[in-house]
Amino acid sequence: MKQTLSTLATVLAISLALPVQAQFAKPEDATKYRKASFNVMAAHFGRLGAMANGRAPYDAKAAVDNAEVVSVMAKLPWSAFVEGSDKGDTRAKPEIWKESAKFKDAADKMQAEMVKLNTAAKAGNIDALKVAFGPAAASCKACHDAFRKD
Ligand code: ASC
User: Fold this and answer.
1) pLDDT at residue 22 in the model
2) pLDDT score of 79
3) 141 C-alpha to center of ligand 1: Å?
4) Which ligand 1 atom is nearest residue 42's CA?
5) CB 121, CB 114: distance < 8 Å
6) Residues in the ligand 1 pocket, defined by CB under 6 Å
7) pLDDT for 118-140, tens place per residue?
8) CA of 62 to the centre of ligand 1 (A)
9) pTM of structure
10) Do the domain assignments include residue 7?
11) What Å distances lie between residue 30 and 95, 102, 113, CA to CA?
């Protein structure tokens, strides 16, 4: 029993450490998935922006909750930029697949900024949130400028 539990714990620890890897039956499913994850992220990021920019009152708990969602969602879209999903209902530029190392750098940078934003939200003060929000928004914009059609 003890042995079984410890094996189970090991399996669980390994599976939690694996990066999220969604599977898609069709390229359109991948496109829908990445758009959905960006949309959820944007909704929660926008709430943080409203607080950071003084358009909404600062609420420490709401900041933590929103930043948590943002940092989790930030991990999701990348595995959905599959081959063949450059066509159809997407603003993804071909450069995503042609300059994949550059795209990965931009994606990694964004995720790192969202982790910092999450840490800042947990600090529990508006100034920390303001400091982290600017670079986080800039990391969204940098990727949009290079890799998204408007
Ligand atoms: C947002 C949002 C984005 C980013 C970007 C920052 O709130 O939806 O995509 O910020 O506009 O420049």
Assistant:
1) 76
2) 96
3) 7
4) 8
5) no
6) 42, 45-46, 49, 137, 140-141
7) 999 999 999 999 999 999 999 99
8) 19
9) 0.87
10) no
11) 17, 21, 24
What is the tally of structural domains in the chain? 1
The enclosing domain of 106 has a CATH number of 1.20.120.10
pLDDT for res 9: 67
> To 10 degrees, the CA torsion angle through 27, 29, 31, 34?
-130
Give a yes or no: residue 16 inside a domain: no
Tell me the best of 51, 133, 140, 145 to mutate to test the pocket of ligand 1, counting ligand atoms within 8 Å of each CB and taking the most. Answer: 140
**Residue 94 is assigned to a structural domain of this protein:** yes
Atom 8 of ligand 1: nearest residue by CA position: 42
Which atom number of ligand 1 is nearest to the Cα of residue 141? 12
Match 């300059």 to its residue by tokens.
Answer: 99
Determine the structural domain holding residue 38 and report its residue range. Answer: 26-81+89-147
Judged on CB neighbours under 10 Å (0-12, 13-18, 19+), 121 is buried
